[in-house]
Amino acid sequence: SALAPWYLKAACGDAYGEVVVAEYNINEHADDILTSIYLQKPDVAAFSCYIWNISLVLKVASSLKKVLPGTVIVLGGPEVSYDAERILEEHDYVDYILAGEGEKSFPKLVKWLADRMALDTSDAICRGYNDAKAGRPGNSDADVSYMKYGYVNTQMQEYANAQAGRREDSFADS
Length: 174
Prior knowledge:
Elements: H1 4-12, H2 30-40, E1 44-48, H3 54-67, E2 72-76, H4 78-81, H5 84-90, E3 96-98, H6 102-115, E4 125-127, H7 153-173
Parallel strand pairs: 1-2, 2-3
Antiparallel strand pairs: 3-4
Helix pairs in contact: 1-6, 2-3
């Protein structure tokens, strides 16, 4: 399980509506992922983009925008944040790109989308061209002391149990 989405969920808390984490992997078919997301009918679909999943993410995000045109598509992660302007130019279905630690910028973006308040694009948020492009992701200050812990207690217990089981098995096999 990737830690980043759980940190984003924790950073949003309950104040921004329901934040659902849906995890997929590159071995799943794009159509299956698309169907799963489509059935949830999200207002916002945010994707963590890495070198190993970027092609799949872009394919799913493009298709999602076609079947749910009102869904806001947000990309973040190392594979898109370094060259946000180019990504936004080449992929017009992408509405926003987040750079740096999303624990600050993602809750602000979600709040702005919910309340339609003024969006401070200086906070590592870059808008897509379809939304009067503004902002340019900048360098992160890398201060992570404000972050809430991403996993909830039940998830930590499940993880600890799984790790304990793996350790017992590996020692038993050696």
